[in-house]
Amino acid sequence: MSKRASIVNSWTEWDELEEVVIGRADSACFEPVEPGNRPELRDSFLAATIPFPTGRKRDAVVQWANEELAGFAALLEAQGVKVRRPHCHDFGQPIQTPHFSVPNQYCAVCPRDVMITFGNEILEATMSRRARFFEYLPYRKLVYEYWQSDPHMIWNAAPKPTMADAMYNVDFWKWPTAHRHARMQDFEFCITQDEVVFDAADCCRLGRDIIVQESMTTNRTGIHWLKRHLEPRGLRVHPVHFPLDFFPSHIDCTFVPLCPGMILTNPERPIRENDKRLFLGNGWEFVDAPQPALTNDEMPLFCQSSKWLSMNVFSISPTKIICEERESSLQKLLLSRGFEVYALPFRNVFEFGGSFHCASWDIRRRGECVDYFPNQPEYA
Ligand code: ABU
User: Fold this and answer.
1) Exposure of 176 by Cβ count < 10 A (0-12 exposed, 13-18 middle, 19+ buried)?
2) Rounded to an integer, what distance in angstroms lies between the CA atom of residue 351 and that of residue 349?
């Protein structure tokens, strides 16, 4: 693998950070109801009484989130990291394509969902939801800048799916829990297998090995596309599954590498037995996250993510981690494991789809492509 100095270079979730993009909340909207998404108010009485809001979020809510995002950016800058921000995009605009229409788009708070760096490559994900079809646009000027100033940088955009009705299993949303339980080994969610579909946040980079979660936002065809795209470069792509997560979307609240040899795991979403072998066969340790400070019922009313946003931490280096300020149990655990912990307020960002890891996209981390998994399992 290449040893040359470049602007775009990031192989893991934990190497020492040098340049990063942090999201912004300007012009954010509520996600519309669509075949790939059924947003609901968190309060079950209200959810049964009033519909999920549509259109733009309130200015004050956007401002509170922007203040916390600015605090995240300031902490990173104080650590010597170069911080970039997405450009403004009007998410209030409707989308009309030959295959679908939606009344508005979403936001640019979570670059992690859309954009990913694999070494010297920036890849734009296909995305899986209609309201997020054009979510690469706020990052395009930055990508052009990197492409123009770094001759080693490779830029790719994965094929856009149609997002037509036929791409979705709409029955998925009506399945009762017992049926979900019965089907939990099938890993069939709200997207069919007919088109290439993945969100970047279902991928997790561990040097030469990339794991990709099969989920509501990434299908097997999408993982197959990633395999064919990345493996000729010497990378290895491994699908991973968390059978007790009935609504999986993005791996970074479920399985979060902290440094070489250590994964923060979600005690309510264990990894499938067969998928464990890559880690256990190479001496990696699973460390269960403690219960989050908030229960699912206490999460913000419009937030569509789970209480496990507590685990959505962000690594500045293999020894420094940013964690939400009220997650004291997790902070204690990380301190006991020898990490330096930086606590910041971030709960106002939660209703925009994520916490620190989601709200960032690393462009450059020190380090090269290391093989952390020399013992490769033979998959049955
Ligand atoms: N965007 C990350 C949300 C994942 C979760 O709620 O578990």
Assistant:
1) exposed
2) 6
CA of 215 to the centre of ligand 1 (A): 11
Angle, alpha carbons 129-135-140 (nearest 5°): 150
Q: How far is 349 from 363, CA to CA, in rounded Å? A: 22
Dist CA 153 CA 19 (whole Å): 14
Catalytic residue flag (residue 199): yes
Q: Quick check: CB of 358 below 6 Å from ligand 1?
A: yes
354 lines ligand 1 (CB under 6 A): yes
Catalytic residue among 26, 89, 190, 250: 250
pLDDT of residue 184: 79
- Cβ of 114 less than 6 Å from ligand 1: no
Q: Which residue's CA is minimally distant from atom 3 of ligand 1?
A: 305
Q: Is 165 one of the annotated active-site residues of the chain?
A: no
Domain spans in the chain, listed from the N-terminal domain onward:
7-366
Kindly list the distances between the CA atom of residue 24 and the CA atoms of 10, 317, 323, in Å, as whole numbers in the listed order: 22, 23, 19
What is the value of pTM for the model shown? 0.96
CATH of domain 7-366: 3.75.10.10
Closest ligand 1 atom number to CA of residue 354: 1
- The number of angstroms, rounded, from the C-alpha of 145 to the middle of its chain's C-alpha atoms is 23
The token pair that represents 27 in the structure block: 């012009």
- Per-residue pLDDT tens digits for 115-169: 999 999 999 999 999 999 999 999 999 999 999 999 999 999 999 999 999 999 9
User: What is the identity of the amino acid at 104?
Assistant: N
